[in-house]
Write a structure and sequence with these properties.
The complex is a heterodimer of chains A (319) and B (253).
Chain A lengths: L3 E14 L2 E14 L3 E5 L6 H8 L7 E6 L2 E2 L4 H7 E4 L11 H11 L4 H14 L15 H13 L5 E5 L7 H16 L3 E6 L2 H7 L2 E6 L2 E6 L1 H7 L3 E6 L4 H9 L4 E7 L2 E6 L2 H14 L6 E5 L3 H9 L3 H4 L2
Parallel strand pairs in A: 3-8, 3-9, 6-7, 7-8
Antiparallel strand pairs in A: 1-2, 1-4, 4-5, 9-10, 11-13, 11-14, 12-13
Chain B lengths: L1 H18 L2 H17 L1 H7 L10 H19 L2 H9 L2 H6 L5 H27 L8 H29 L2 H17 L12 H7 L3 H13 L6 H28 L2
The chains are: A alpha/beta (319), B mainly alpha (253).
């Protein structure tokens, strides 16, 4: 029996728009195991943030249920808030306040006596390598420092479950690597981390378990390795000058091709055995006078998982 | 009680942020000063007109300026709140056990302290210019000023929370603040106004507050204006806090 820290059943959220009702979250089922880094991967506008806002009690669901540590986020919101930490994409620190001031304030809001809140603030500033900057206004912090402070604010009351909304968006590669280390350290310390991301690399490298969301629906979930294995065999990508649709159709009709599709200027062709398929692909295209511009063979990536499920490339939609 | 604990935390935090930006406080004091120095002398020649209230020009004008300081110090506070919302501060605190009412009450008390300090400076500066004061009257008058803040501040914060953008909040706030100001008799006493205008003004709680504060500065404690002003403002403060608290709790449940 897996120990679940978070579970949702058929979670839905509808917004009214000028064109009618829009279902931003359209029946999401999630199960997050205690002590893992859970990645919620999807393009912008897929429903990640809306789901996160429901899970953190900020937004009531239109229907369905969500339980966090056995508590219903709708009916037990105050109890849920005491047990979770939440770091919004835009952060949540006042640029005029000092980092220490914000940490102490947060601790006090969670009912810590002043002395404990100060001690905890010092502890977090040191752990997050912000000790030197702790008494400066947040407005003087770099993007990476600010994001680390935001994580610290979310961790003041030692929650068992921490929600991070796009924790590395807008960070340079160095600051991103640093944030990844921080998130791993949290998990190793026993905190379950639920993060959203539209970066494939982040989902792949950082997350123990993944759910991929598109148009408000979960299209795949599992470990990165499992997801990639489900896209059987190898992927041949072919750069084409002419009609990609035509090439894809032609390839899809071949017995050695499981599936082929055209998206973002390249044809992707899923085959069982890449090495032996390459010459066949080349021969076929040559025979039709459709010489490819480029040809590459690679193992399936998470992007292939996304592409297989949605027909679109996450790399492009995320831009 | 959580609400007192959290109100105190929010009050201290926001007062600290205000004190760190004294430019704002100075700007707030400047405006009544400009009125005092550039508009006050005009009233001196008016004060002999029939219908002009007793006590001399500055005893009519300074109480009015105090009400104006309280009015401007409370109706535009929603703008700062929107900027805090944009920084994510408000949302971050929503995912804590913090009392929702405290978020508004703590900030309102900060605003009250700020405009009371401005008002105090104003009174001190006006004494050499000709203002006569009664110490007890001034203390009660300032308590009444605090009530103005408790009436108007929560409304501004609740509007900011619901509206969420400066562009929409600005015209709405103007539309509320301007008639409140003009119908309160703070610039020129309403005793100079035609009957119909005075009747309309009597629907404005700030009109009664202004009359009460004028009477208090003149130590006319038995003047019915005093009790009416305090009563009207107390009722309004209770009503406004109740409505604002409901709105805030609903918007940030």
């Amino acid at each position: 029996m897996r120990d679940l820290v978070l579970e949702t059943r058929d979670l839905r959220r509808t917004f009214k728009a000028k064109t009618g009702a829009v279902e931003a979250v359209a029946g999401v089922d999630l199960a997050v195991e205690t002590g893992t880094i859970f990645g919620f991967l999807g393009p912008n506008g897929a429903g990640k943030t809306t789901t996160l806002r429901i899970l953190t009690t900020l937004l009531p669901p239109s229907s369905g249920t969500a339980t966090v540590m056995g508590l219903d986020v709708g009916t037990d919101a105050p109890a849920v808030r005491r047990r979770i930490g939440y770091v919004a994409q835009s952060g949540g620190s006042d640029p005029r306040m000092s980092g220490r001031g914000e940490l102490v304030m947060q601790g006090r809001l969670f009912g810590m006596p002043g002395r404990d809140a100060h001690r905890r603030a010092t502890e977090l500033l040191e752990a997050l390598d912000l000790a030197d900057a702790g008494d400066r206004p947040v407005s003087t912090y770099s993007g990476g420092m600010r994001r680390r402070l935001d994580v610290g604010i979310g961790m003041v009351h030692r929650p068992g479950l921490l929600f991070l909304d796009e924790p590395t968006t807008g960070l340079d590669p160095q600051a991103r690597a640093r944030m990844w280390d921080e998130v791993r350290r949290l998990r190793d310390g026993g905190t379950t981390v639920f993060l959203t991301t539209h970066y494939l690399e982040e989902a792949d490298a950082l997350c123990d378990l993944l759910a991929i969301i598109d148009h408000g629906r979960i299209v795949a979930s599992g470990t990165a390795a499992e997801l990639k294995k489900a896209v059987a065999g190898d992927v041949v990508t072919i750069g084409v000058t002419g009609s990609g649709e035509l090439v894809a159709q032609l390839l899809a009709a071949q017995p050695f091709v499981r599936e082929a599709g055209f998206a973002d200027g390249v044809v992707r062709c899923y085959v069982d055995d890449g090495e032996s398929s390459l010459p066949a692909v080349l021969r076929l295209l040559d025979g039709q006078g459709l010489a490819p511009q480029s040809l590459a063979l690679h193992r399936p990536s998470l992007d292939d998982v996304f592409l297989r499920q949605t027909g679109r490339s996450l790399r492009d939609t995320a831009a | 009680m959580r609400i007192f604990h959290d109100t105190w935390l929010v009050f201290r935090r926001s007062l600290g942020l205000t004190v760190r930006q004294p430019a704002w406080l100075i700007a707030g004091v400047m405006q009544p000063f400009v009125y005092l120095l550039l508009f006050g002398p005009l009233l001196n020649s008016l004060s002999s007109m029939p219908g002009f209230p007793p006590g001399g020009a500055f005893n009519v004008f300074v109480p009015g300026l105090l009400v104006m300081t309280a009015l401007f110090g409370s109706t535009f506070v929603g703008f700062g709140f929107i900027s805090e919302m944009r920084d994510g501060v408000v949302e971050r605190m929503r995912v804590t056990p913090m009392s929702r009412t405290a978020a508004v009450l703590g900030r309102t008390l900060r605003d009250v302290v700020v405009f009371m300090v401005q008002g105090l400076i104003l009174v001190v500066v006006a004494i050499p210019l000709g203002l006569r004061i009664d110490p007890v009257g001034v203390v009660v008058a300032f308590a009444l000023l605090a009530l103005i803040g408790l009436v108007l501040g929560p409304v501004s914060y609740a509007m900011a929370l619901v509206i969420g953008s400066e562009d929409a909040l600005a015209p709405l706030t103007q539309a509320i603040a301007l008639p409140l100001l003009l119908l309160s008799g703070v610039m020129l006493p309403m005793s100079l106004a035609p009957d119909w205008l005075r009747t309309v003004a009597s629907l404005n709680p700030l009109y009664h507050a202004t009359l009460a504060i004028r009477a208090l500065f003149n130590a006319q404690f038995s003047d019915p204006d005093v009790m009416v002003g305090i009563g009207v403002m107390a009722v309004c403060a209770v009503l406004s806090s109740w409505v604002a608290s409901r709105t805030v709790n609903r918007a940030t449940a």
